[in-house]
Amino acid sequence: MVDFLFDDIFSIEKVDPDGKKFDKVSRIVAQSEKHGVVLLLDVNTEIYPMHAKDKFLMVLSPTLEWSGATATGKRGQVEQKSLADKFEYIMHGLLYKMSTACSESSKGKPKASVEGSKTDVKVEVYASFGGLQMMLKGDPSSCTKFTIDQNLFLLIRKLI
Question: CATH number for the domain including 89?
């Protein structure tokens, strides 16, 4: 069974908060239910429209194979089931940056108190999917499976 890097249900709070920059792409801002993570994600809305208040399941996975095996690109004569069969929107990309950030409540405090407070320090995870960007910002405990230069698949399915 595949071991996901991250999975959660998100609610879209805003679409294009800084204005529409591209005709076919929108940047969504969403909040997760389980981990309290904030997501900024560029989505090709020409092929997969997304709107404020939509709910969706997002999974970040190192592979599309149910077994967890790395995809070789060669499939046998028999069509194999894939993780992609369960999702509507899929992108492949690269995790290129991870950093820590302090929330507003920890700014101005001595450095020792910021480092000692788990609720104030957030991890930011950045990935690029052929130019479409993703940023996850949340508690470090929800981002333990990520590494820099890691290939990953982003899979989305809307919930009703």
Answer: 2.40.50.140
73 inside domain: yes
> pTM (2 decimals)?
0.81
pLDDT for 48 = 97
pLDDT for 72 equals 53
- Residue 22: domain span: 6-159
Residue 73: left if φ>0, alpha if ψ -120 to 50, beta else—which one? left
Query: What are the C-alpha distances in Å from 87 to residues 21, 91, 113, 142, 147?
Result: 27, 11, 42, 22, 24
* Sequence-distant (≥ 6) Cβ neighbours of residue 144 within 8 angstroms: none
Instruction: Establish if 1 belongs to a structural domain.
Output: no
CA distance linking residue 80 with residue 37, whole number of Å = 33
Comparing 46-50, 141-145, 146-150, 155-159, the range with the smallest average pLDDT is 141-145
From the number of C-beta atoms within 10 Å of its C-beta (0-12, 13-18, 19+), residue 7 rates as middle
Residue range 70-97: average pLDDT? 79
Domain tally for the chain? 1
Burial classification of residue 5, based on how many CB atoms lie within 10 Å of its CB (0-12 exposed, 13-18 middle, 19 or more buried): buried
Token readout for 103 is 């929330």
